[in-house]
């Protein structure tokens, strides 16, 4: 009698996590954040509710982790390290490359709908808003700040510049234009933001 191999619990857990991620992102797009529930995510993913609560404490935790995972998957498919800012020694080129990748994500329906849902709900749900900032926004902003500090050390940015204010010169206009849909976003637009931020508006 041939002995069957024992089930791979790790592989089963990964399949369940992936199904939960996909279910959570799909539901927040279809139903909106307020109507998305842990029960609904579990049913859509084909798992028990207790499975979700074993790994996460709330639907917000599920959605934020699912969104982070989506970003990592897309980055690797595109061939670059997720959630990173390169340091080639050319600050303008590095910033333009990252912002171009950001534009590609923001106009991708897989990202746009859940990102808008989470951003909008974060304005009215204080707890979700704090988690949204802490888990999604702050880590990315810190990457920009670190790249600007490296540029300061290399003499490419004035030593008196506050990196956290400096990064707002190109990150904030992009976020505002995308959220408010005041105009299309494109690679040309973010390239221009970097040029304006680094070289100013005065004649040189």
UniProtKB/TrEMBL annotation:
Protein's UniProt keywords contain Cell membrane: no
Extent of the signal sequence: none
DNA-binding region residue numbers: 37-56
Pfam family, one: TetR_C_11
Taxonomic superkingdom: Bacteria
Keyword set includes Transcription: yes
Residues annotated as domain HTH tetR-type: 14-74
UniProt keywords, alphabetically: DNA-binding, Transcription, Transcription regulation
PROSITE patterns xrefs: HTH_TETR_2
Cross-referenced InterPro entries: Homeodomain-like_sf, HTH-type_TetR-like_transc_reg, HTH_TetR, Tet_transcr_reg_TetR-rel_C_sf, TetR_C
Protein name, entry field: TetR/AcrR family transcriptional regulator
């Amino acid at each position: 009698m041939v002995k069957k191999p024992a089930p791979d619990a790790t592989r089963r857990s990964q399949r369940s996590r992936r199904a939960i991620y996909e279910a959570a992102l799909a539901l927040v797009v279809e139903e909106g954040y307020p109507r998305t529930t842990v029960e609904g995510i579990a049913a859509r993913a084909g798992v028990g509710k207790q499975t979700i609560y074993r790994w996460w404490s709330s639907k917000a935790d599920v959605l934020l982790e699912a969104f982070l995972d989506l970003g990592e998957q897309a980055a690797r498919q595109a061939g670059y390290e997720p959630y990173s800012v390169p340091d080639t020694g050319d600050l303008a080129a590095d910033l333009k490359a990252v912002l171009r990748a950001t534009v590609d994500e923001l106009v991708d329906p897989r990202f746009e709908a859940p990102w808008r849902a989470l951003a909008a709900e974060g304005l009215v749900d204080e707890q979700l808003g704090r988690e949204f900032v802490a888990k999604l926004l702050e880590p990315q902003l810190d990457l920009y700040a670190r790249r600007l500090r490296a540029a300061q050390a290399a003499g490419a940015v004035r030593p008196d510049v506050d990196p956290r204010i400096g990064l707002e010169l190109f990150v904030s206009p992009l976020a505002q234009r995308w959220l408010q849909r005041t105009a299309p976003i494109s690679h040309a637009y973010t390239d221009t933001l970097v040029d304006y931020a680094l070289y100013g508006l005065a004649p040189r």
